[in-house]
Nucleoside triphosphate pyrophosphohydrolase
Amino acid sequence: MTDDLIHNPKGGMPRLLEIMRRLRDPETGCPWDIEQTFATIAPYTIEEAYEVADAIEREAWDELKGELGDLLFQSVFHAQMADDAGMFTFDQVADTMSDKMVARHPHVFGDESRDKSATQQTVDWEVQKARERAAKGEVRVLDGVAKGLPALTRAVKLQKRAARVGFDWPEIGQVLDKLVEEAHEIKDAQDSGDHDHVTEEFGDFLFVAANLARHLKIDPEEALRAANQKFIRRFNQVEDAITASGRNMSDADLAEMDAIWDAVKAREKAAD
């Protein structure tokens, strides 16, 4: 067996596939890679997808190539495990995607006119996806919404599906009223002392919050990521102020930290 391809810096996709095959070789491969399963690798796949999104959000273009490579490796890993089990190959994965793209773009690869808007193409895309779901026996309105999606994203997708058949609030004000109602129900559940009930009502609150984001045409995951970053930025400034006085964060009380936080917030708003 030659290692020429393995060590060829310009070996491209064949090199990566061969590396993965060698890693999974039951006799000469890596013990860790050999013992992995679809279930054990899936969390890494999700993590790598988020790291791609993070690099894009930060416009870290020098990092994006590597992050895309990490995500590609996850697909290669899953495909190799499937190949080992006699299920399908990486080439079949690629062919499946190619077939899907050709079928969903008859205005590019077929005889359908390209003379339509991006909005109309989105509508046509959804129609084609509905046909594909029906062909797989997914005939109910909410069938086929992936369970592994982040919960807020899945909530929005479920709500969009329901809205297509008219199950939706027509006014944003109604969604806001429902959000207030759900907040009161959390308080009532908390007063009851039933933690499971509190958890259920909090889930309802988040579900309606996701619905509000949809009505406002906001990606709730993106909005929450931005809020997380804002919190980190402001908290770091609070920490800097405390440590600049020669103390640790544990030496400051909440009132002092709140006062610094308010000052940081005021500076940011004044700078906008």
